Amino acid sequence: MTQSGSVKNHTRHAALGLTDEQAVRMYELMQLARKYDERGQLLQRAGKVNFNISGINQEPSQVAMAFAMDTERDWFLPYYRDYAFVLSVGMTVKELMLALFGKAEDPNSAGRQLPGHFGSKRLRIVTGSSPVTTQVPHAVGFALAAKMRGENSVSLVSFGEGSSNQGDFHEGCNFAGVMKLPVIFVCQNNGYAISVPLSKQTAGRISDRALGYGFPGFQVDGNDPLEVYRVFKEAHDRALAGEGPTLIEVVTYRVTPHSASDNDLAYRTKEEVEHHRAKDGIPAYRRYLTDIGLWNDEKEQELLARIRKEIDEATEYGERAPFQSVEDAFRYVYAETDEAGEVR
Amino acid sequence: MTQSGSVKNHTRHAALGLTDEQAVRMYELMQLARKYDERGQLLQRAGKVNFNISGINQEPSQVAMAFAMDTERDWFLPYYRDYAFVLSVGMTVKELMLALFGKAEDPNSAGRQLPGHFGSKRLRIVTGSSPVTTQVPHAVGFALAAKMRGENSVSLVSFGEGSSNQGDFHEGCNFAGVMKLPVIFVCQNNGYAISVPLSKQTAGRISDRALGYGFPGFQVDGNDPLEVYRVFKEAHDRALAGEGPTLIEVVTYRVTPHSASDNDLAYRTKEEVEHHRAKDGIPAYRRYLTDIGLWNDEKEQELLARIRKEIDEATEYGERAPFQSVEDAFRYVYAETDEAGEVR
Amino acid sequence: MPVLEYIEAIRTAMKEEMERDSRVFVLGEDVGLKGGVFGATKGLQQQFGEMRSLDTPLAESAIAGVAIGAAMAGMRPVAEMQYSDFMFPATNQIISEAAKIRYRSNNDWDCPIVIRAPIGAGVFGGLYHSQCPESVFFGTPGLKIVAPATAYDAKGLLLAAIRDPDPVLFFENKKCYRLIADEVPEGEYTVPIGKASVMREGSDITVIGYSMPLHFAMQAADELSREEGIEAHILDLRTIQPLDREAILEAAARTGKVLIVHEDNKTGGVGAEVAAIISEELLFDLDAPIRRVCGPDVPATVFNPPGEKHFMLNKDKLKAAMLDLARY
Amino acid sequence: MPVLEYIEAIRTAMKEEMERDSRVFVLGEDVGLKGGVFGATKGLQQQFGEMRSLDTPLAESAIAGVAIGAAMAGMRPVAEMQYSDFMFPATNQIISEAAKIRYRSNNDWDCPIVIRAPIGAGVFGGLYHSQCPESVFFGTPGLKIVAPATAYDAKGLLLAAIRDPDPVLFFENKKCYRLIADEVPEGEYTVPIGKASVMREGSDITVIGYSMPLHFAMQAADELSREEGIEAHILDLRTIQPLDREAILEAAARTGKVLIVHEDNKTGGVGAEVAAIISEELLFDLDAPIRRVCGPDVPATVFNPPGEKHFMLNKDKLKAAMLDLARY
Ligand SMILES: Cc1ncc(C[n+]2csc(CCOP(=O)(O)OP(=O)(O)O)c2C)c(N)n1
Ligand SMILES: Cc1ncc(C[n+]2csc(CCOP(=O)(O)OP(=O)(O)O)c2C)c(N)n1
Ligand SMILES: [Mg+2]
Ligand SMILES: [Mg+2]
To answer: Matching CDD domains, A to Z (chains C, D) (predicted)?
Structure first.
């Protein structure tokens, strides 16, 4: 894509090498993710779906990190709040809705896994599970494979700050550090692991842990997508240059309860939540685009209408789609082979 | 103990608060451990015992760290090379020999475990296993219990640098950091994990990892027992003062093969080993004691003779002692209770 | 006697034991202010403070490992694993450490911990909030494993587990939490670990199992009694390690026709051992092959409702199997 | 045909497969220059370089987890666990991840890894270099598990495992490494996963088992044949998951008297499932109770030689059990 507009290079995004189209597209994706997520919550509250877990407030950074990646070559190992990220690397709202309703056509798992458990080989999104942090060593394995095959590929893995206290975080980071592998470790520090606040998860700063593995670690404000983009872009460049892994701690805040069944006011105050909700990165980014002339109210209305339509259609489709048959739900414990023993 | 001698406070050890008797006792223990260990190797080579693993070259720091601890109150979770440490907190050569020969009277395990797998409730040495690093969270549990009960007790846990890459290191350190528990984490970095050199274990510095858990980490030269003592004493003081854990990386070198069955020249050179052997902390410490008038050749002869006698007697005792009966070897999978259901 | 929900019985056991014994404390993820994701520890932090109802970092190996250390130091920790699916990171601490501490130290050290973990499907939890991990730990010498089916047993076994001098895995069924309620005495009583109990007497067929599926078996038995005059003898193992061999053999001999039920996958489950014990000791007293009705050998279980339902046991599946066996 | 030691057969399989397929690599602790603590990977680093015979940091969960990632990326990793006792830190990666990747992604992703691990006692290794961990993983849907007893099967099963599209646990017996040697073809051949093999034909009693104890059974069978005219039929399961049900039933039916042998602790072992299958399918064809001779239900095993010897199976123990069964 080429850059356009008179503010070229004078804007923050242009200085980072992002075109105006990209800057706008980032905004659209943030809004798409937000609206999808809000719909998910509604559907859950209405009893139309059995589970929902939200990524609200984490979208700006998730979109920004996706934009720093190469969707043709890199490998993605997101976690269950990464709706905005997977939408940014190519998953559709319809696919998310199919997962939310647990339907056969869901490309992530055919409705086998909980919503938010992403996976799509086509989109280079690696299948994930519920036990947290297991994906960290997997990302290292993808980077190792890339290095062995001489591929210019980076793997990005994300997880919460609570999850960074699992042994697999340590073992994965250390392995990648020793072998200088092209991995970006992303800790989305949203202040809580279910009810447990950061202060009870760790007394250190998560980004500081990188030092002990011999690679750089950075903390970045998750509400500032352009700064997030910058930090990820640099990490991506370093990875491709053979300089090894980077740990990035995205500082954000979980404004929703942990999941649908969580009563968060048992362990935090409304005021605390409101304080953080006021710092939402989406309106701030909209102001940025508006200020530099890339956005206006008309575009906003048009966008919201488009998104609503897309989500409405996806919801309807997801709701109507069939479940995987119970017979098929028993398939693929192992590979199915044909008579000649070849995997089908 | 009171301090004695004209060099009071002018010597390094006195400045650290160690009496002359203690300084000398430290030397004796280093030599005792060294000689025990050499005998263990001999017995193994002679086919008299089935397994031996050596702590040679790591004795000076092990003795020093023991001297910084309170043997009445603290809890010790050593690892399999910690002969000098366990001797310093009260285990006898006879007991080590009973373990080496795998005999019933071995207080560590009655000959159930491999030699080097220490445990003695009486000596506050917590039973250890072979899977590395599992003892790290245990040490944290001891410290937690101490804190809960308001006891002035510190737990010390040691492990190798290879072992510091296990998830349990991370999880244990982080837990202790959050709760500011009185634990001293000791990484005895001897440069190898069996055949794997430090450079393939981690690209970071192990002591730097403490930062990520919010407590201090130090590196110390294992060949300098007085410096080791100083660092441990400070860590012990901090722990008792409620200031939480410390990570101490003792830099040493494994001059022996990993264990009896290891041919180390498959992965390192004789020169490298000799280079490090020349830096042995024991003769250096002997020179220190000699220079300040606390030691001389006569005392050395007398000490070596005493040690030899002790080891000879212990060897003979260990060799002659009976094995645990095969019936008894099946006991204690569970607690044995008497008719009233009380644990015996 | 008051009727308590299964989960309330569990909560009550912890609360009463913490009142009685200052060495007892609970630890785990979200066990504090939140009171656990199912509510099993609700109120404990308020009553006993932050240290005795301890929110840990999100790290199961540390939860188990720190509990083990504290237990060796003389405390009586009750560690909660949020879902049994998430106890696998702690496997090494459980199998290599907790199970072997007494044995390896020749009785010098001991490890009196309890690890509580919810098992079973039926809450739309998908592949990682539905498993039964019993068979992973079953057969490890040094561990005791209990899996109560009733509120009465839940309280009595949890008290027994906390007081037991050895490590006990306490598998509570998340479907039982609020579905099952029965009479639970106030105050202390223990249900002995290692003792099965006869839930129903009968002379036509024997059903042996543990945890939630027994309730389906009881319902099926009632219907079969009414509709077909078939009387099922139902044995609740309660403790799955050590198994109550005598009770198993007695129950099997009673009818000569044995059906084993559990929700854990069939292959390699506890039921295999029960069948093996019977076929080793009682082969010629049997009038029918030993059958097992268990979770199928696929991962437990999918998120979508028809798939989950298809995976799980229920009254009808058990009734069909019981009828079939009775008619054999 | 050349006679190879069991361990050499394993090494040869890796070497030949690495020559044939550039996606294959080995990783683990000390697998590089040292060639593994038992020597199974000796020479591979010299031939294939540091990347394809990769010394990892000392972290089993990472060894498994990184291998899983690489496998999903299209490689064919062969991960070595130095002793099977040390694979427990990797349990979560094996059970929650490797086993479920294909299933949870509805066949979109797969996880073709092999995890090799030495099992069994007999090397004065004490409590943590002697265990048989089969029963921990047995019964986990999605895993395949093999445990060869001969050099021929070791090579053929390892080649099959590396080529298998699903995760395979490859349990090699450390006592077999240098004690067992037999004819092994040069070049490629595979032994199919899931197929048992008859090691010896006989009509008096049936012995079913896997790994090292089968050699004791063979010796005992020879003696019983010579001394008592008792002919044992011996079935080597070779694959313990999925079990070869047909072969088990056929072998059991052959004599009507079944003895199951393995070194893993008796309770909850693979033998329980074998017994359960037989008693489910073939009960009325049996002429004797199904017996199991296995490792006793204590941790395997103590360091001191008499204790270790007492724990382990041997020819005499099997011979006594076989004779007893024949005379039943
Ligand atoms: C191994 C494991 N233990 C426990 C859980 C239950 N659990 C699900 S999410 C969660 C909290 C995660 O917190 P964090 O990593 O901070 O991510 P966040 O949800 O805050 O984004 C917990 C404890 C789990 N999924 N996996
Ligand atoms: C979990 C586990 N994996 C593997 C082993 C096998 N093993 C025993 S010692 C050792 C190396 C330990 O190295 P390090 O931690 O540096 O301690 P050192 O022996 O050098 O003192 C290994 C790999 C083990 N004991 N435990
Ligand atoms: Mg969080
Ligand atoms: Mg080392």
So the answer is: TPP_PYR_E1-PDHc-beta_like
